[in-house]
Amino acid sequence: MRTTSFIWDVCKSSFTFGLIGLTVSDRFASVVHVQGLSMSPTFNPPNNSSLGLLTVNGPSTDDHVMVEKRCLTDYKFSHGDVIVFSSPRNYKEKQIKRITGLAGDWISVPFSYDAVRIPEGHCWVEGDNPTDSLDSRSFGPIPLGLIRGRVTHILWPPQRVQKVDRKLPRSGLTF
Amino acid sequence: MLPTFNLTNELVLLERISTRNGKAGSGDVVILQSPENPRKLVTKRIIGMEGDKITYIVDPKNSDRTETVIVPKGHVWVQGDNIYNSYDSRNFGPVPYGLLKGKIWPSSAFGSIGKRPETVDPALKVLEQTNQS
């Protein structure tokens, strides 16, 4: 009888903590594993590995960042915020990019004299590493409703623990 | 969304799992975040999924001009059932699937929700057949 009540206690505690953990990660903050080099050098900077030109970031050195969800109550974002959003091409994929334009801004289209105005309720996202980033330059402005959180800190690896700051865009027309 | 829903406030059951799993499809009535204001939820019917060819009447009150689009990957085309008075994909374009928040459930049990009601414009019936062919 003592074993069954012990198992029952374990079940109750894990259910409680699981529920609390789920609520916190859904409403307040969660940790996200950053893959890929589209936000280099802000996340996953290139290693000085002995492979020379080929810089590889394996799973042991990928950054893990803290994503806060409180910004999703009123969707007030600023230029330079790093956000996590569902890809408009595939809702199951989540991407991390920086907001470089908000509704009402004009963005210059590369290799042309056109300028695109970002519609209401949308934003323009770009990766910090423009050569290796699939972002708004390919799929256009994204609705703010796709945003799933804002990145505030890098939590892992320990030598890279720091706050992620807003960085204003270096290029592109913003009036 | 007349005549599917009344003008007086109606209470329906919203099911949030189908949209997370990708099971929402054409003909479903869904709730989605408006692409123009993420704090606003709107109710529309999915007319087409990615890859579908949609032919729609641009401005039914004034003319019969139609346009045809192909829904891009990862997006859906939504329209209100009352096309004379609905602000939907004909105005803001196809919406990414990630904006869908839930499906009105169950689709077939309630008499007024489900397939489009029969008392519609004959012009719309032609459109429906063109979409399906």
From TrEMBL, chain A:
UniProt domain Peptidase S26: residue ranges: 8-109, 116-156
GO annotation terms (biological process): protein processing involved in protein targeting to mitochondrion; signal peptide processing
Gene Ontology CC terms: mitochondrial inner membrane peptidase complex
SUPFAM superfamilies: LexA/Signal peptidase (SSF51306)
Claim: Transmembrane is one of the keywords in the record: yes
Superkingdom to which the source organism belongs: Eukaryota
Keywords, sorted A to Z: Hydrolase, Membrane, Mitochondrion, Mitochondrion inner membrane, Protease, Transmembrane, Transmembrane helix
Keyword Membrane among UniProt keywords: yes
Organism taxonomic ancestry: Eukaryota, Viridiplantae, Streptophyta, Embryophyta, Tracheophyta
Protein's cellular compartments: Mitochondrion inner membrane
Pfam families named in the record: Peptidase_S26
Main subcellular location of this protein, as a coarse class: mitochondrion
Topological category with respect to the lipid bilayer: Single-pass membrane protein
Protein name per its UniProtKB record: Mitochondrial inner membrane protease subunit 2
Active site per database record: S38, K97
InterPro entries: IMP2, LexA/Signal_pep-like_sf, Pept_S26A_signal_pept_1, Peptidase_S26
Similarity section: Belongs to the peptidase S26 family. IMP2 subfamily.
Species this chain originates from: Ambrosia artemisiifolia
GO MF annotation, one: serine-type endopeptidase activity
UniProtKB/TrEMBL annotation, chain B:
Species the sequence originates in: Ambrosia artemisiifolia (Common ragweed)
Chief place where the protein resides: mitochondrion
A GO MF term: serine-type endopeptidase activity
Keyword Ubl conjugation: no
UniProt keyword list: Hydrolase, Membrane, Mitochondrion, Mitochondrion inner membrane
InterPro entries cross-referenced by the UniProt entry: LexA/Signal_pep-like_sf, Mito_IMP1_subunit, Pept_S26A_signal_pept_1, Peptidase_S26
Job of this protein: Catalyzes the removal of transit peptides required for the targeting of proteins from the mitochondrial matrix, across the inner membrane, into the inter-membrane space.
Family affiliation: Belongs to the peptidase S26 family. IMP1 subfamily.
Complex formation: Heterodimer of 2 subunits, IMP1A/B and IMP12.
Domain Peptidase S26: 8-56, 66-103
Database matches in CDD domains: S26_SPase_I
Record's protein name: Peptidase S26 domain-containing protein
A single Gene Ontology CC term: mitochondrial inner membrane peptidase complex
Any one GO BP annotation for this protein: protein processing involved in protein targeting to mitochondrion
Annotated compartments: Mitochondrion inner membrane
